[in-house]
């Protein structure tokens, strides 16, 4: 039998054929008028996705590079920052800040929980000297989304900056940078942008730029001032990832044609269908505030989550993600962001049913599919 592979991880995500094709075009030079035109179109497209009037800068790095860029461009050694850590990526903010000598006040929540607005308000009251709050739009390690609109209401009138890791969520769920009062927002290419890994994006509010002026942490490659002055000349400070940027141009054109609202609705339907399938199997979600980017599912009692992921990958070629340390085996994650359609969800659930059957889990075959199918059919335009 031909085993066709399927990628259903929360990054990297599948790349549409039209976008793949663009990646194979002959290289053009990055200091040419042709490239400058592409670069400026892409910058405009990113502003649309970020829902901001500020310029969005393109970095040649995976998402974590933009996280580091956010830290080094707004802070000085020894300054205090609040980090909301409710998973792997919140934890990464802590690690990056500490690597640069920031005085981190960690607000830790168990994996799967979010942080209610009141608790952030209390933390801000206890730490009025915190220069920034570092948080996450969609915590990809757990599927949880945070109430950033409310966080923005808390930081807006203060000197504290709101810094958002939007790497998996931006472009797939609402996160309007300007109207929510986000001061630094970042995203990454291999999640909802439907292109391969290798690019990240960052934008600063006017309040964010004020901090950039005074920030004394060391930086060179990720210096936002270099990106800003180069963009005035319609280019990037260093050799950009030319082919990826061409792919991004194509992907953004697709996203703009679909429109943000429709993209958000699409992701909501994909998530609802997945969750319906999961609850039909009487499996439990990990997250108490699940978003529409991925679905984290607790491993049923007596089974090993690593084995589920492994059978799905090795035998059925359906790649989902396991749980990261220190929760390996305790849950698994189905990604449904980017270039994913309703029948991809059915594929994931079919492979999951076949795998659970093999693991001896007791359920009625087809229940997950029936539940997901009903949702997909209901919304089919
Ligand atoms: C994927 C992801 C990252 C890490 O990005 P890399 O591209 O692997 O460096 C950070 N934060 C979130 C929320 C993510 O989903």
Work out the radius of gyration. 21 Å
How many strands appear in the DSSP assignment?
14
The secondary structure category is alpha/beta
Largest sheet: 7 strands, mixed
Mean of all residue-level pLDDT scores: 98
Backbone shape = globular
Distance N to C terminus: 34 Å
The stretches of 5 or more residues where confidence is low (pLDDT under 50) are none
What's the domain count? Answer: 2
**Class of the largest domain, according to the CATH hierarchy?**
Alpha Beta
Percent helix: 40-55%
Query: What small molecules accompany the polymer chains?
Result: pyridoxal-5'-phosphate
Name the helix and strand elements from N-terminus to C-terminus, one letter apiece: EHHEHEHEHEEEHEEEHHHHEHEEEHH
CATH architecture of the largest domain: 3-Layer(aba) Sandwich
**Strands in their spatial order, largest beta sheet:** 2-10-9-8-5-3-4
The H-level CATH homologous superfamily of the largest domain, spelled out, is Type I PLP-dependent aspartate aminotransferase-like (Major domain)
Q: What is the CATH topology of the largest domain?
A: Aspartate Aminotransferase, domain 2
Strand content: 15-25%
User: How many individual helices?
Assistant: 13
Write the layout of secondary structure elements.
Blueprint: E1 6-7, H1 17-23, H2 33-50, E2 56-60, H3 63-74, E3 80-85, H4 88-99, E4 103-108, H5 117-126, E5 132-136, E6 138-139, E7 144-145, H6 148-155, E8 161-165, E9 184-188, E10 199-204, H7 206-214, H8 224-232, H9 242-258, H10 260-280, E11 294-298, H11 305-314, E12 318-319, E13 321-322, E14 331-335, H12 342-358, H13 367-379
Parallel strand pairs: 1-12, 3-4, 3-5, 5-8, 8-9
Antiparallel strand pairs: 2-10, 6-7, 9-10, 11-14, 13-14
Bound molecules: pyridoxal-5'-phosphate.
